[in-house]
Amino acid sequence: ANYGPNPICKGCLSCSKDNGCIRCQHKLFFFLRREGMRQYGECLHSCPSGYYGLRTPDMNRCSRCRIENCDSCFSRDFCTKCKSGFYSHRGRCFRGCPAGFAALEELMECVEGCEVGQWSEWGTCSRNNKTCGFKWGLETRTRQIVKKPVKDTIPCPTIAESRRCKMAMRHCPGGKWRRPAKTKDKKKKKKNLMERAQKQHSIFLATDKTSQ
């Protein structure tokens, strides 16, 4: 029977009062909606979130996307749009992009990121362009950018880093190494000289009075 006036039968070729659409008009998709223990058929122009339209000679149907966290898909195993908070990558949905790929926030997609090579060996320990004369210095290592990112807005990982190191030679050959005077030692030395000067001045004054 065709229950035309019934809203549940909109777009149906055949319809059941209890189960809704059984067959849909041409170009519409048959969608089996479930509500609790009950289910009924609907005829839709486009499939709802989590489903994709499958066209067949018999009848077009809405089939469920089999990809986790997918909002809409092109086929059963290829997602075109992921749910909020997930990034789309090669038809799948991820919380974070795989290694070698960067997140494109405006589209919530994973694109090819900046690829860098292996770290070089640590360089010579130096300080002020000298490899001797100090106890501690810095050593640096670098790596090259192998592949630039698709977009200029995607940053590359650091390509140089330094760390503290101990000099191989604390004393330079042919030169005299002298420990730099510390500010605290200078102040202490100056204070001692002042005290000695004041003491000698007091002795001089006392001697001068005695002689008078």
Structure description:
The C terminus is likely disordered. The protein has 1 helix and 16 strands. The chain folds into 3 domains: 53 residues, Hormone Receptor, Insulin-like Growth Factor Receptor 1, Chain A, domain 2 (Hormone Receptor, Insulin-like Growth Factor Receptor 1, Chain A domain 2, Ribbon); 41 residues, Ribbon (Hormone Receptor, Insulin-like Growth Factor Receptor 1, Chain A domain 2), CATH 2.10.220; 87 residues, no CATH class. With 212 residues, the chain is mainly beta. The protein has a two-stranded antiparallel sheet. A two-stranded antiparallel ribbon has the order 3-4. Strands 5-6 form a two-stranded antiparallel ribbon. The protein starts with 11 loop residues before the first strand and ends with a helix. A hairpin with a 2-residue loop joins strand 3 and strand 4.
Brief characterization of the structure:
This protein is mainly β and 212 residues long.
Distance between the termini: 143 Å
Overall strand count:
16
Which class of secondary structure composition applies to the elements?
mainly beta
Q: pLDDT under 50 segments (min length 5)?
A: 208-212
Domain module count: 3
Order of helices and strands: EEEEEEEEEEEEEEEEH
Shape: elongated
Report strand order across the widest sheet: 1-2
Main sheet summary: 2 strands, antiparallel
Determine the mean pLDDT.
Answer: 80
- Provide the helix percentage: 10-25%
Rg result: 41 Å
Strand content is: 35-45%
Tally of separate helices: 1
